[in-house]
Amino acid sequence: MASAAGPLSRITRIAGPALLPAIAYGAYKGNAAGLIEAFFTGPGRTSRIIALVVVIVNWKSLPLAWTYRIFNGMISHLIVRPNHTYPPDKLFQPVKTETHVTLLEVDYNIHKSNSTYFADLDVSRTHLVGHLFAQGCRALNNNASTKLVPDPSDPSRAAKGAFNIILGGVQCSFKKELKPYQRYEMWSRILSWDRKWMYIVTHYVEKGAVKPGSKPEDWEKKIYASAISKYVFKVGRLTVHPAVLIGASGLLPERPGGWVKESGADKLPNGSANGHAEQNAAEPLAWDWKRTEEERRKGLEYAVHLASLDGLLNQFEPGEDGPLGRFGPG
C-alpha cells in the first residue's frame, strides 16, 4: 500500500494543476467523462496530447504553480498532519524536497537560470519550517489563548495581531549548472538563530547521491549550489524570538535561565573554547542544552555574514548627477 501511495501522490502533485481547469470545466458542463474522452480521441487529439505532456513536464513554471507548491507545503504540515513532533536532537536535521528543471527555467546558457533557484528555496523552506515547527506555528497563531508572546505594555495580556513568517534575506552560491529536465534534491535544515533571525541553509544536491549514514566520494562535486536564508517571526508588529517558536515545538532542551533572555542566548556556555562548548568525557552523550548551543554557534559563524549584509543600504550612491542612464523595459 505504501509503495503504491508514493507514485500516486507524485502523479497527483504533477498532473493535478494541469488537469484541474479541464476537470472544473467538465464538472461545470456536467459532462466531465465526455469532455475527457473527446480530449483524447477527438479531432486534433495529437496536438492536444502533446500540449498536455508539455504542460505536465513544465507544470512548476505555470502561472499559480508556485502558489500551489507553497500552499501544498503549508496545508500538508500545518493542517493535514500538524501533531508530529521530534526530540531536541532532531532540530538541526534536514528535510529533502525533490524537483526538476523545467524548460521555462532554462536561460540562454541552456541551464537552470540563477533567478529560479529562489522560487525553489521558498518551497523547501516551507516544508522545513512547517514540518519541524507545526506545533509552534499553531501555538503562535493562537497567541490570544496560549499567551506565548505577551503584550509589552501589559505582560498579563497576550500580544495582539496575526502570526507571520517573513523572509528577510537570501544569499546563494552557485557551484555547478543544472541542465534542462535534470532532477535534483534540496536539503534544507536549521543552521542557527539569534535574537531576531532564524537562519536556514539549503543545498542543491544531485538526485540519489546521498545515502543514509554516509557521504559519497567527491562530495563537493555532488552539490550544485548552497544557499542561506533568514526568517523573522512576527505577532502583529512584535518580533518573536526564534527560541519561542522552537521551544513551543518541543525542540529545545531545558536550559538554566532559559533561551530567550540575553544571558541565555548570547553568552558562551561554561567550559567553552573558540566559541564552542566542550564535551566532558565524563558526561553522558544525551542531547542537552550545551550541545544545542554548540550547534547554534557553529552555524552562527556562517550566518553572521548574511546578517552583515543589512549594512549594504549605507552603500547606496545615487551619483552626483543622477544615474548614468535610464533603461527599459525592466
Automatic annotation (TrEMBL):
UniProt xrefs under SUPFAM superfamilies: Thioesterase/thiol ester dehydrase-isomerase (SSF54637)
Spans through the membrane: none
Pfam family, one: 4HBT_2
Region (Disordered): 262-287
Family the entry assigns: Belongs to the lcsJ thioesterase family.
Listed PANTHER family: PROTEIN THEM6 (PTHR12475:SF4), PTHR12475
Protein name in UniProt: Capsule polysaccharide biosynthesis protein
